Amino acid sequence: MLSLNVVGCGRVGMTLARLLHQNRLCTVQDLRALDFAAAARAAAFVGAGRPTNALKDMRQADIWMLSVPDARIAEVAEGIAAVGRVSDASIGGATSVVFHCSGFHPASLLDPLRRLGWQAASVHPVLSFAEPESALMQFPGTPCGIEGDAPAVAALGSIFTAIGAQCFSVDGERKALYHAAAVFANNFTVVLQSIAREAWAEAGVPEAMARRMQDSLLRATVDNFARLGAMAITGPAARGDTALVAAQAAAVSQWHPQAGVVYRELSALAQRLAADCTTLPATPD
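The structure assignment produced for this chain is given below.
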């Protein structure tokens, strides 16, 4: 069985390590976090692995997962390279495989290890890891964007498919836009739903009723978009009621200036989407 080291024991790292462990695809070996207690908690959640205090204490492994925040990936790669840990084991004729889980950064951020002969990749699960317990149940069927060195992509694609992922290739040079799309689809949806909840509260709608309305609208919107795509757009901006949009924008701005800006900008995009089936501006002939 392939050995796995994990650097970064947050929600993503714990979830993936446990999935790989419980499906008997990897032997979870050493775990490194910002502090020993976090690594110990991760080991308890995964059900395997040895918490370690430092990179130098980690043993050689077939696969290294760097599930650290984006801003620390390059630093951690440099740190591992400095320790000089190169595995004798091979995967598909290559030496150790290392991957990070960023949706923004390409595999090239791992070049310090590539220069030591490692095979590098990035694997980005398109899933909200709000809590590891829920993510474990939600993971089957999760799309995972993979890019990097061919041997690493092949090896990781195989084991991620085995834990239920739907793997696809992503262009490393366009990952900033790729990841921004995920932010729009996921994170900004939460922001907009939070604004809606706060606006209903400000308007005096009872909380229980606001939750009921929000649940109904959100579920219907998801279903309609899945069936109709851009044609699912409705509302005052979509039907061209500019007077109502202006009055509503003024009311929102008086209550919450930033939300007022968002309302105006999204209304302009909604109007364009309804008219042209795209939010993109028209290109000159």
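Interim note for the steering committee: The domain at 2-170 is CATH 3.40.50.720 (Rossmann fold). Residues 85-94 have pLDDT under 50 and may be disordered.
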